[in-house]
Design brief:
Elements lengths: L3 H4 L2 H8 L1 H7 L1 H11 L6 E5 L5 H9 L4 E6 L2 H11 L5 E5 L15 E5 L8 H11 L5 E7 L6 H9 L22 H10 L3 E16 L4 H12 L2 H7 L3 H17 L1 E2 L2 E14 L3
Parallel strand pairs: 1-2, 1-4, 2-3, 4-5
Antiparallel strand pairs: 5-8, 6-8, 7-8
Helix pairs in contact: 2-6, 10-12
The chain binds S-adenosylmethionine (SAM).
S-adenosylmethionine binds next to helix 1 and strand 2.
Length: about 280
């Protein structure tokens, strides 16, 4: 589970520090997501949970006559995105909660887009209903999100390396967090209840690049990335002594197993979800 408060605090800070390695991890997916997004013309795009802004930047560069607004709840990430978009006259970054964001009325977005930024709403149905009301009636929605953990080798393997607590409860699979939208039927249902139409799911399998470098540096890079970002980072930060060393050794081993030449990458599985605001 990752809450809005965490994005506004520790998690947002680490993502803001790590945006280069995070963009790298999404590299293969981003190309496919941008192709899907740009299949339809648009004049005004809203990037929901824009993070450090890679989608906003790429779209603004590729579509100079369209307006682009990146919206994020984390001050640190909005600041990073602002820096990256400073030279782009058709891109603006706003700090705010997408679940209650209000359009000023003149320029309703006709494209709502997100790379993994929409799975953190405490009430996703009401957030998507609200966003639909803010959008142009002809708007298109396109976002990516992870499929279930069982389909994502990277998180399954990471979880298998972490110490097990006998008291640990099975997490709610729909709790706000990176895997909240793993179940296709659940997501289709909530988007339908929120008023979205023509809902479609494209499964995308991609190589999540987590480490690069020569002479074994790729594995060290992967280990340090997993210590900084994602589900292992918090667990490792709470360990010390021998327990911490053991997990780091295992992480290193995982990096070695998934290294090809100068790159460490793990299989990842996500959906690209598309929908329209009206029939
Ligand atoms: C997994 S990150 C993805 C960031 C970015 N889209 C990317 O691909 O690098 C999720 C993002 O959603 C943002 N976020 C979470 N809840 C939000 C909300 N209610 N409104 C706006 N942004 C939110 C977080 O701050 C974070 O930047």
């Amino acid at each position: 589970m990752t809450t809005a408060n965490e994005w506004q605090d520790r998690v947002g800070e680490s993502w803001a520090r790590e945006w280069q390695r995070t963009d790298r991890s999404f590299r293969e997916l981003t190309g496919q997501l941008l192709d899907t997004v740009q299949a339809e013309p648009y004049r005004s795009a809203l990037d929901i949970g824009c993070g450090a802004g890679e989608l906003t930047v790429s779209l603004a560069k590729a579509n100079p006559s369209a307006a682009h607004l990146g919206l994020d709840i984390s001050e640190d990430l909005a600041a990073a995105a602002r820096e990256r978009t400073a030279a782009l006259p058709n891109a603006t970054i706003q700090l705010g909660d997408a679940a209650s964001w209000n359009c000023d009325g003149n320029d309703r977005p006709d494209l709502l887009v997100s790379r993994h930024g929409v799975m953190f709403f405490p009430d996703p149905t009401s957030a998507f209903a609200h966003l639909r009301k803010q959008a142009d009636p002809q708007a298109h929605l396109t976002f990516s999100c992870f499929r279930q953990p069982s389909e994502n080798v990277w998180v399954r393997e990471l979880a298998s390396l972490m110490p097990k607590s006998p008291e640990a409860q099975a997490p709610d699979p729909r709790a706000p967090g990176p895997f909240a939208f793993g179940e296709k039927d659940y997501v289709a249902d909530l988007l339908g209840k929120a008023g979205w139409r023509n809902i479609d799911f494209i499964p995308v399998d991609y190589a999540m690049v987590v480490g690069e470098g020569e002479d074994g540096d790729a594995v060290a890079d992967a280990t340090s990335y997993f210590r900084a970002i994602g589900p292992a980072a918090r667990v490792i930060s709470e360990l010390d002594g021998a327990a911490r060393e053991e997990v780091l050794q295992r992480l290193f081993g995982m990096g070695e197993r998934h290294r090809t030449g100068n790159t460490v990458s793990l299989p990842a599985a996500c959906w690209i979800v598309t929908a329209t605001a009206s029939d």
